[in-house]
Amino acid sequence: MNFEEQAGKSVLARAGVSVPQGRLCASAQEAEDAARAIGPVVVKAQVPAGKRGKSGGVKLAATPEEAATAAQAILGMEIGGFPVARVLVEEQAAIAREFYAAVLNDPASRSPLVLFSTEGGMDIEEVAATRPESLRRMAVDIRKGFGPADARRLLLGLDLGEAAVPVAAMLVDLYRVYRQHDAELLEINPLALLADGRVVPLDCKLTVDDAALYRQADIAGLGAKEPLSALEERGRALDLKYIELEGNVGVLANGAGLTMTTMDVVSHAGGRPANFLEIGGEAYTKGTEALDLVLSNPGVKSLVVNFCGAFARTDVMAGGVIQAWKTLNPTIPVFFSIHGTGEDEAVRMVREELGIEPYDRMEDAISAAVEAAR
Amino acid sequence: MIVRKSDRVLVQGITGKQGTFWTEQMQAYGTTVVGGVNPKKAGQSHCGVPIFATAKEAMANGGFDVSVMFIPPAAAKAAAIDAIEAGAKTVVCLTEHIPSHDVMEMHAAAAEHGTRIIGPNTAGIVTPGEGFVGIMPAFNPRVFQPGRVGVISRSGSLGTLVCLNLVRGGHGQSAFLGIGGDPMIGTTTKDALAVLIDDPGTDAIALVGEIGGSMEEEAAELVAKTDKPVVSFIAGRASPPGKKMGHAGAIVTGDRGSHASKRGALERAGAVVVDVPGDLPAALDALMAEAAKRSGAQRLAD
Question: Which of B55, B210, B222, B264 is the most exposed, having the fewest neighbouring CB atoms within 10 Å of its CB?
Fold first, then answer.
C-alpha cells in the first residue's frame, strides 16, 4: 500500500519525527486560508507517484492569493495516472543543504537496507550512476536493528559538519518507523538541513507491505486508494487478483505464473488478453465468482480456461466454472485445458456437463480461442 | 535440496485440512514422514506419526532433516524459527503472504544456523519415484516421471505445466525444485541451478523464470560455466508493467527484471529460451543431441 506525501508525513509525526507544518487542501479557498495561517508556503500535488515537480505539481507561493492561484492550477491535473484531488500547503523551509535517505527491503541481502546520500533532491538512480561516492548503503541485521552507532558508521567520512548528529538521529528514527510499520520502503528525498540547524523531511514516500496490513490497522486507513476500474473493484472485494486489459480473449487460470504464461501464449498466437485473473492458492474455490467477473467485461469475445493444478484442485475449480457457466449461460465460446491435481474428474465434468472436450495442449486451446475472438 | 527417501520429514501444521491431505499424499508417494507439529495435540498421533509440541521436541525425539510448513502467515515466522533453531537442514515454507519483515527475520535466523529455506510461497520439491515435499501433483504420472532433466520454477502452477510438457516430450525429471514466488526467497534460481549442475543424476536443466527481480540474470552466470544443456521459459512477456513507487528499489536491481533483460542474459550464457512452454521438449532434444555429439567427439579426441 502506497502513502501519499502528507499521509507518510503524518505517520512520521505520529512516531515522534518532526515534520514541516502543513495542511491538506481540496480547494483554492482552503489553500488560501491555510497560507494565511502559515505564511509563505509551497503547494504540492498529493498523488502516490513520483516526478511531481517535473510535472508542474509543486509551486511556491509567497502570499495567500498566490497559494490560491497555485492550488487552482494544480488541482485537477493528472500526474502519473492519478488525478490530483488534494494539495499539501506547507511552510517554506529555509534550506541550507539537501540530502537523500531511505530504508527499504533488499531482496539481494534479504535484509533491510539503509541508504544515505549527500546529493538530495535528484533521482537516486542518477546519483548512483554519476556520484556513487556520495551514496552510502548498509545492510542491517534485522534482529539487531539499526542504532546510533550504525548510523555514525554509515555516515563516516561524509562532509556533513554539524549536521552529522541530527542526520544520524534521523536515520535511526526512519529505521524505527520502517520497522514499526512493516514498510517495504520509506524514502525521504530531500531530507533538508535547515538554516537553523534542524534536519527535516521535505518529502516522504512510504510503501507498507500489503501482507502486514492486518497488524497495521492504525495507519492502513491513511494509505492511497489504487486507481481501479469498476471490475477491478469487484475483483478486490472478492479477494481475487483481477486486472482489466484492452484485449478480447478472456483468461481464467490458476497461479500467477500460469496466468502470466496464458497471457503470453495468447499474445504469441496473435491475440490480445482481456484480463489477468488467477484463482490459485486459497482462491481456488472461487471459480464461480471468477468466471462471472471475466464475463462481465463486454470486450470478451472468447474465453480460455487453463488449469494446471498443484495445490489448487482442478476438479474444484472446474466445478465452480461449470456452475457459473450454467447459471450465466453465456453465448461466447470457451476453450479448456486442464492438467494436474484432480484432472481426470475435472475433464470428465467439463465433457459431461458442458459437452465440451478440453484440449490436451494449452497452446491449442489458446490458438482456438484467439481464432474465435477474431 | 533434492529430496531423497532417506530425508526424514517433519510436517508443521500436520492436523489441519491441507496438512492432513498433503501428508497422506506424501506418505503414499514414498516420502519418509517422521512426525508432525501441533502444540495443542502434542502426544497424540496423526496420519500414523507422532505429534510434537514443537520442532525442537521432534528433534530431541528421533530427529528430522526437512521441515515443511502448513502454517498460516501470521504464525509462519515463529514456526520457521522453531524448525531452524531445532537444527533442521532444510525448511520448505509453503506459506504465501508472510509479512516481509517476518521473512527477513526467518532468513537471518537461517543464515545463523546454516539452514536452507526453500520459499516462502513455494509449491515444494519433487524427486519422481522417490519422494516429494509440498503441494505438487507428484503422483500424477502425466506430470512427473523419473528421468534426467532437473526443473527449477518459482511457480507451482507453471512448474506443473512445464513438467507436463517434458513428460509429453519423453523427458522425465531428476528433480523438480520449486523455489517460491516471494520477492525474498531463501534459495534463489542461481542456488537451485548450482545444485542441479552438481547433481550426477541431472543431464539437462529446464529453468522456468518470471519477470521481476534479477534472479534469472544472476543464474545466467552459472549457465555460462556449465556443460549441461539449459532450456528456459520466462513468463510475463505480455504482462503490463507494474506501477513503481519511489526509486530506492530501482538502484538495487538497476534496469534488470524485464523479460528482455532475462532472456538476453540467459541466451548470451548459452541457454535456449523458448516463446511458449510447449516448445521446451524440442529445444531440449536439440541441445542434448548437440551435447552428445560434443562429448562423442571429445571421446574420439581422447
Answer: B264
Partnered with residue B67 across adjacent β-strands are: B10, B91
Q: How far apart are CA A77 and CA A220, in angstroms?
A: 26
Picking from A124, A141, A362, the nearest residue to B161 by CB comes out as A362
Contact A334, A214 (CB under 8 A): no
C-alpha cell at B117: 529455506
The domain covering A95-220 belongs, at the CATH homologous superfamily level, to ATP-grasp fold, B domain (3.30.470.20)
> Hey, is the C-beta of A220 within 8 angstroms of any chain B C-beta?
no
Per DSSP bridges, beta strands A275-278 and A302-309 are unpaired
pTM: 0.94
**Helical H segments across A106-193, by residue range:** 124-130, 148-155, 164-180
Boundary residue ending a domain (B64, B83, B118): B118
Residues of chain B with Cβ-Cβ distance to A104 below 8 Å are 246, 248-249, 252
CB atoms within 10 A of CB A350: 23
Tell me the chain A residues in contact with residue B248 when contact means C-beta distances shorter than 8 Å: 102, 104, 115, 124, 185, 187
Query: Where is B165: in which H helix or E strand?
Result: helix B156-168
Judge whether B259 counts as a catalytic residue. Answer: no
Task: Give one DSSP letter per residue of A5-65, joined into a string.
Answer: HHHHHHHHHHTT-----EEEESSHHHHHHHHHHH-SEEEEE--SSS-TTTTT-EEEESSHH
B210-265 pLDDT tens trace: 988 889 999 999 999 999 999 999 998 888 776 333 444 545 555 568 899 999 99
Q: Across the interface, which of B99, B246, B276 has its CB nearest the CB of A207? A: B246
Q: Where in chain A is the domain with CATH 3.30.470.20?
A: 95-220
ipTM of the complex: 0.93
